[in-house]
């Protein structure tokens, strides 16, 4: 909650940690406006890089476990197989670069028992995200054009949160480790939108369009599938299939109404 604790304010962070005897930090805060980041470079850097650097520093000083959430946007999307943690990074834009800078800073400072998790296409029953947008537009419009030539996998935020809770007691590493997490499966944004309409029982027709038909200030990776073998084997976790997770999310949304 940025009103309660501003990640850009180092004094606030230090005071909060001191008052609450914090021994674990899970940093999900990020500047995620991918296109706007091209104009607000300083703000994106402050949140995605400098704040992470400070969290890593204070985690090392206070012996706090730090789990930092990063992104598939650290890759350029030119791969033809799922990205592993050791693949070369090459962000396409400011957002990806600032997230990568945060990763590099965290690894350099190297707080113990800490990891960073790269994830992709995150959605959930709270906040603004692709699933909620599609459900809203699906009620308002007869048809929608959705990009079919960007491939990856969505991540249900609740699944990621559960995985983190399973991982926390197992953290005993001296060096910051990198892991990949998303739901299982391979799909495009077009496939995702079609399934949201089907599960949401909406009549809106989804038409496939190419990325070039929907130009944006920041380039997106065309292929950002993440290989999850390392995190599954290391922590013995099971990752749900993307359709099962979407169904779970929609069920939660209905129950909350």
Automatic annotation (TrEMBL):
It comes from the Bacteria. One of its GO terms (cellular component) is cytosol. Pfam families: RmlD_sub_bind. The keyword NADP applies. GO terms for biological process: dTDP-rhamnose biosynthetic process. Residues 1-253 form the RmlD-like substrate binding domain. The keyword Phosphoprotein does not apply. It catalyses: dTDP-beta-L-rhamnose + NADP(+) = dTDP-4-dehydro-beta-L-rhamnose + NADPH + H(+). Belongs to the dTDP-4-dehydrorhamnose reductase family. PANTHER family: DTDP-4-DEHYDRORHAMNOSE REDUCTASE, METHIONINE ADENOSYLTRANSFERASE 2 SUBUNIT BETA. Catalyzes the reduction of dTDP-6-deoxy-L-lyxo-4-hexulose to yield dTDP-L-rhamnose. This is dTDP-4-dehydrorhamnose reductase. It comes from uncultured Sulfurovum sp. The lineage of its organism: Bacteria, Pseudomonadati, Campylobacterota, Epsilonproteobacteria, Campylobacterales.
């Amino acid at each position: 909650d940025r009103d309660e604790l501003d990640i850009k304010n180092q004094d606030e962070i230090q005071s909060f940690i001191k008052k609450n005897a914090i021994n674990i930090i899970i940093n999900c805060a990020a500047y995620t406006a991918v296109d706007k980041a091209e104009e607000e470079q300083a703000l994106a850097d402050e949140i995605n890089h400098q704040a992470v650097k400070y969290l890593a520093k204070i985690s090392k000083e206070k012996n706090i476990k730090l789990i930092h959430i990063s992104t598939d946007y650290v890759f350029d999307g030119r791969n033809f197989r799922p990205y592993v943690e050791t693949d070369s990074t090459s962000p396409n834009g400011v957002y990806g670069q600032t997230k990568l800078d945060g990763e590099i800073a965290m690894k350099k400072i190297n707080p113990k028992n800490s990891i960073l998790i790269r994830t992709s296409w995150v959605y959930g029953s709270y906040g603004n995200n692709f699933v909620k947008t599609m459900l809203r537009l699906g009620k308002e419009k007869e048809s929608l054009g959705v990009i079919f030539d960007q491939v990856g996998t969505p991540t249900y935020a609740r699944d990621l949160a559960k995985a983190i809770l399973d991982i926390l007691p197992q953290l005993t590493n001296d060096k910051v480790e990198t892991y990949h997490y998303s739901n299982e499966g391979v799909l495009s944004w077009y496939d995702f939108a079609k399934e949201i309409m089907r599960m949401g029982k909406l009549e809106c027709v989804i038409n496939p369009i190419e990325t070039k038909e929907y130009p944006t200030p920041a380039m997106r990776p065309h292929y950002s599938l993440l290989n999850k073998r390392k995190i599954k084997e290391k922590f013995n976790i099971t990752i749900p299939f993307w359709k099962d997770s979407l169904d779970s999310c929609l069920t939660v949304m209905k129950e909350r109404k």
